[in-house]
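quick one before i forget lol
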Amino acid sequence: MWSPTEEEKYGVVICSFRGAVPQGLVLELGETVQILEKCEGWYRGVSIKKPNVKGIFPANYIHLKKAIVSNRGQYETVVPLEDSVVTEVTATLQEWAVLWKQLYVKHKVDLFYKLRHVMNELIDLRRQLLSGHLTQDQVREVKRHLTVRLDWGNEHLGLDLVPRKDFEVVDSDQISVSDLYKMHLSSRHSVQQSTSQVDTIRQRHGEACRVPVPHHFFLSLKSFTYNTIGEDTDVFFSLYDVREGKQISERFMVRLNKNGGPRNPEKIDRMCALFTDLSSKDMKRDLYIVAHVIRIGRMLLNDSKKGPPHLHYRRPYGCAVLSIMDVLQSISEIKEEKDFVLKVYTCNNENEWCQIHENIIRKSSTKYTAPSSNYGLIISLQLLRGDMEQIRRENPMIFNRGVSVTRKLGFPDVIMPGDIRNDLYLTLEKGDFERGGKSVQKNIEVTMYVLYADGEILKDCISLGSGEPSRSAYHSFVLYHNNSPRWGEIIKLPIPIDRFRGSHLRFEFRHCSTKDKGEKKLFGFAFTPLMRDDGTTLSDDIHELYVYKCDENSTFNNHALYLGLPCCKEDYNGCPNIPSSLIFQRSTKETFSVSTQLSSTKLTQNVDLLALLKWKAYPDRVMDILGRLRHVSGEEIVKFLQDILDTLFVVLDDNTEKYGLLVFQSLVFIINLLRDSKYFHFRPVMDTYIQKHFAGALAYKELIRCLKWYMDRSAELVRQDHIQEAMRALEYLFKFIVQSRILYSRATCGMEEEQFRSSIQELFQSIRFVLSLDSRSSETLIFTQAALLNSFPAIFDELLQMFTVQEVAEFVRGTLGSMPSTVHIGQSMDVVKLQSIARTVDSRLFSFSESRRILLPVVLHHIHLHLRQQKELLICSGILSSIFSIIKTSSLEGDVVEEVEMMVESLLDVLLQTLLTIMSKSQSQEAVRGQRCPQCTAEITGEYVSCLLSLLRQMSDTHFQHLLDNFQSKDELKEFLLKIFCVFRNLMKMSVFPRDWMVMRLLTSNIIVTTVQYLSSALHKNFTETDFDFKVWNSYFSLAVLFINQPSLQLENATPAKRKKILDKYGDMRVMMAYELFSMWQNLGEHKIHFIPGMIGPFLGVTLVPQPEVRNIMIPIFHDMMDWEQRKNGNFKQVEAELIDKLDSLVSEGKGDENYRELFSLLLLEKIEQETWRETGISFVTSVTRLMERLLDYRDCMKGDETENKKIGCTVNLMNFYKSEINKEEMYIRYIHKLCDMHLQAENYTEAAFTLLLYCELLQWEDRPLREFLHYPSQSEWQRKEGLCRKIIHYFNKGKSWEFGIPLCRELAIQYESLYDYQSLSWIRKMEATYYDNIMEQQRLEPEFFRVGFYGRKFPFFLRNKEYVCRGHDYERLEAFQQRMLSEFPQAIAMQHPNHPDDSILQCDAQYLQIYAVTPIPDNIDVLQMDRVPDRIKSFYRVNNIRKFRYDRPFHKGPKDKENEFKSLWIERTTLTLTHSLPGISRWFEVERRELVEVSPLENAIQVVENKNQELRTLISQYQHKQMHGNINLLSMCLNGVIDAAVNGGIARYQEAFFDKDYITKHPGDAEKITQLKELMQEQVHVLGVGLAVHEKFVHPEMRPLHKKLIDQFQMMRSSLYHELPGLDKLSPACSGTSTPRSNVLVSHGPMSPESIKLVHRHSPLNLLGSVRHSSSSLSSHTSSETGNLVILTDSSVGETAEDMYHMQASPSTSSLSSTHSAPSQMINSAPSSARGSPSLPDKYRHSREMMMLLPTHRDRPSSAMYPAAIMENGQPPNFQRALIQQMIGPCKPCSDPNLSVAEKAVPAAPSSWSLDSGTREALPFLSAHVGSILAPPVPPRSLPHGHYSLHFDAFHHQLSDAPPALPARTLRKSPLHPIPASPTSPQSGLDGSNSTLSGSASSGVSSLSESNFGHSSEPPPRTDTMDSVPSQAWNTDEDLETPYLPVRYSLSEPDVLESLKSQPCRSHSAPSGVIPQDTMDPPALPPKPYHSRLPNMENEEGMIIEDDDKHRPLHRKVSQPVSGGKEEQARVAWEHGISEQ
């Protein structure tokens, strides 16, 4: 049964609970819970984190805590009963924990570890606090540590500062704003201190903080390591002042044994001393620690003969010093001891022993000897601060070690009462003794005793140093052979006070003989008494004592015998008649000097003091004695304070008339003495005396009389020192007066009360009189007044003992009121006056409300005066703070309405004025008078702001009502409102309070919003109708807008806990202000029009605040504005313009979001619906909404880590919107420049130029002046346009788009010419000429183009459901582009098919990308058809100014002929038209229109053959015209490709397909086309004949066998075509050099790069895919990947039919495409015929390495090495494909599309894309998997028997294996001849049926060479170049070597390929530009330009061979690309890249 809990109400979870029971509440460890009910070991309740969720949890998982329950029942609240600091620590740790983890994620490791340490400390301290075992002092200390750490962490984590009082968080409601401000300041101060690791103890006892803090040195001797003395030693440490040349401390003595350890074993680790009571002044002195080492042993250390071994002497040994100045810095910083080593130096001359430390300090090195080693005394030092009590409390460990307290000689700066001390310090100075008839000087030892009056030797009254017990006798050290010894040894004599009088010291002098007996012979003595006869002690001075002769037999038993003798000269003068016949004779030539210093609180050396204390003995000298008291030292007076005061009052009573004034002066002197900080601690002694011991009941009369007498005379006297002293002593004089009166009242039962009162009244009149005097003429009077004012507030408490509060208040009011109220009396007096007022306000008197009512007016009057004049602002603010603090405290207890009313009347206006002045000064960096630094200005501002806020907070409705009613006129009210609004605005703008003062900022906001609510009604009432005042209203609106936008009020950015706290306390103040603002706007009525358009921007800013309620309130105001403007002007153009302008800047600042856009549209459309002007309204709102979409996209792109592309796209989109839709030219131009900057950053120079051109086109060549704009100065339009043109030309130059720059050069030239500016004209003409040179000479890369579709609603607005064509970067291939797009849109899913997506994808909340490469269709076809135009020029027109792009997809229509698929292979051709041509202002543009066309199989065949013919023709013509130099390889490969493919069945497939009678019968309409195909075939034979003739001419002798083979194969080809084309035999023979009739109709075409042609077995279906244009596949990632394009041939049998081939499955292990690591594509691996599939990965790697080793250097590599034919790993295709692929791989080019693979043409478009996300490898068309570029339709295959699948490389092995022909690395020129289809011949090689010669057009140009190189060559040529240096691979044989059958871009589904794509580590290559079908026109061939090699994996895109005229240049990448770019070349790049990757 569940029952409500009584006690168990609050607990902490001590074990996480998963809530795995019905109704279970999930709880985490450390959460707190509120318990409601209990039942059998279970509780039911809520977690404090989620108070709305109730549930049950096990009771034993909860640790219960005591708590206070209020409002018991359903809605009870529970507050834990624990220390508030503990609660704060708990909450803070929970908050930090989250942030702490984020630090790790953000890599802020240093702070992460520091914070962890602090959190652990907090947990530990919290545990201590909770334990309850600490004393009160310890609790305070723990809390101090806790708060220091909390503040440190909050500051470093950027959290809010917590204001505290006594370690506890203050409640801002309980204290005044001024106090809160001060607490913030002190909290910040303590945070800064803790941050700087300075932990000072700050005094909190009012005046006590004036007490200087004493310093103490803790010294510990660790060891004496350099103790080679071999005898016991005494070490004496002391502090020595170099400047004064004396010791300032006692000595600390350590006794060591001969091993350097302590002589007393108990002293181990306890040899330490504390040198105490060093003042701050001492710390600045040049102090040294000096250590004297005295050895105890034989006379001479190294002479054992001197003296017997049993006699030990104290002998000087050495000295060490350490400068405290040098080490002070290091020991101040750390809190523990620090070690130092002190070298011990020995004295060279013993006579100078007393000066050894000075010599060492002065570095007089001749006088001492340094130790042989570096060791010595090892000591540790530590600096401690604070009084002794505190030191004992804080460092108990030091005192546990038995530390020796070593005092200063003399008294410390502060003498504490009760500090009893009685020490006499005696220094043995020197002696002068006679030789005594000896040849050598004596060894003198002095022995000293202290004897009492009765002759008894006092025990333990001599101390050699602290650290060792006192002794009864002292033996000095002995100086060897020295009759004038100087000792300088200080001895302390701690003689008991009662034995002091009558005691004396006796010094005995002995000679220590070093003879055998070694006795010590007494030869004299001296003595001195300690007290003189007059009772004074021995004075502090040097005393030269008489030496009396004596011997060993002399007896000192009867001390009276010598005590009667004079001890010194002064003594002798005092008693001259001494009998000379005494026992002891004085030795007149011998003297002995000692000096003494007394430090005693009981004995005095002062005669005058003794005389005063015994005044009755000298009645006639009383006046003199009282007068001399002033000359007694302060130390003496405070020692005998009570006795002196008693004496004075007794003297006063004795004769008031006679001694009154003198006693008064003495009293004043003593009182003022206690003001000195040294004696400040004696004030309590004085207070105690007054309270308990003072007995002068009659004294008050005389004291009042004297005081009044002094004051009355102040006007007359010139010298007023004594008057001023009396004023300073006022406090204690009044204490004596009041106490005396109380005693008198008690004694007489209150007699003479009236007389006393009247005398006090008169005294106050005198005080007022003094203060009212005009002191400007007399400086002394100023000081008197100042002294009086300073002391005056201190007497209030005394007066309150005798008078009522009101009476005292009246006294004070009269006194303060008597001060001159002008502020001209001089600054110092102003300060004193205000300080006096300040102390009055701080006094107890002011805390009574009765007295406050009396005093406030006069106080406020003075403050008001000063504020009016802006004087002494800091003091005034302090007074005001105190007043507000008192009033706040009082308001919690009683009524303060009247006082607040006074303050409002007197202060409010002047406070506002003062703040405005201060704020304007601080803005202009002018500090306020007396405050030089900005920080002071900030503090003053803060002080006054807090005062103003305190006042406003205290004001109630009635106060505001009175305030507003009291204004005489509306002008006054207006001025007041403007002031207060201005101050409030400045408060928010200037951030008076730092960002982390959240409590202060929120309270400020709360006060402002409350005040504004009071004032807005006055504004509405007074300034709306006829008296409308724009200025006040505008000020009000600005304030409200600023208020709502305050950062501190944006709760969305706060943590949930903080947000809840703020909402609970204040609510959302933005909403309050928004309601206020809206209602005021509505109140404006027709005056609203004044605020249009001015307030649109500010209001828009408010609506952008992410608070739904604020938005709902404020957005309708825009409708209102539109409505009012519509009424006034008939339109709302102003609203529109302003809204658009402001929207742009506000959104770019980060304001606004998608919700805002929707809400804006919704609310306004709803309002506009009812209006007559709704159409324009709706169109405007729609337009703004669309602008917002674009702005939000733009901002998200800019602020995110978005890629350049996205940013550029956004900017273009926004820019176009500004231009086309809302026609805002200025915004448009701004975004032009933003876009230009982005292009420059991305190094898109051409695009940057086009972007700037937009601005340039807006300008005219006119002299109209233009204003300054953006970074342009003010200048004429002509100048700006000229500057722009120059800049644009420069960018076109950097982007190598010289053709675009040239027209601008001409335009500028015309302008310069018209102005006759020939200098500029010359410059621009030269520039133009340079550009023409650049076009002809410089290498340029042709880019790829890619079509990208962005589908889904998650894309930014400007991309959503649109398709674009993008111009790729240099060297970028499809795969690289795909990767780039995916990295730009990491959330996007890549689509796997090229089909147009359906609505489900378009509308889904996701991102889909669809990408494939497209081929540009050039507009400028004329230049491309012109013969003799260099290819360098043509290449530009092929890829620039392109607006149309093409993309082909093969498919089968109708039944498929298994024997010959070409019959049914159609091409689907898509043409995309863009909105703008590329390049332009962006690298990509949107597709505007798409058209689909189908190409029939026959048309396709015609295009393929025609392209190949054109390609051959171009190449041959280049060789004929010597455009290709020297190297014939390219031609060899091209011819070999066509002829060999033909011999092996190439174009024979076309013959079978289209010349067949059945076909002709079924397609009668194709007769003309069939004829055309026949003609083309004939032409191909003719062209081949010409080619062979040219080849014959140039062929290298070593290549003759190849030429012979070509001739043979050509004959076979002709004969095989003979039957079909009877006219063939008439064609010119192989050697014929005549040109063909069509030779002038050359079609530029992208040839295939040799590298891209893969070596394929004759009968391998792979041949089909052979040449892969590396980047052009949408299917194959990197077409068999850049790293792995090594295709591996195996002998396994595969199906012969095309069908088999197309449906072969690419297994992950076999597909060179799907394997990321397969080897470079151009290498061949001949595997045994039994193997099916490729070797395992490691083999692949091995092969790729071997193949690389086989490659010759680029200079001498045979063409086979350069262009190995591509082969696929999976097996060999049937013969027909073999033959067919040979044609395709050869230069023959598909008309349909160079990129189309046969596979794809033959297979229904398999969905394929480059999507990387296909997870499984499904069966896919083998071809497309492996090739990935669209292949041209193949020639029909011939049937072939099974079994011809082995690949042999021995065809020409014998010719080439030994000496591979050198292939110089030339830049290869591209010759875009149309391909000539080869005739189908036997699939067998013409030379050896079993050999497979290399297939493939150009790749086949590699022909069998590559067999020898890659096949069985036993000695592969050495490979000397690295991949980077082999650009020659980049040669593209006839760059149109475009695999005619490249896989198409759109079959986007091959998971295999995708898989391989996914894992590609290397740079992927972008789509082929040749993906788009070739135009059928025949543009003239243009020779390409040579270009510089850049990167090894670059390709010549058309696969063209480029050759330079004079240099061999390695070619990395295509220079120019024929219209239908080269796929083969991509394959080559793949190969090259693969190698480089390997």
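fyi The two ends are 77 Å apart (CA to CA).
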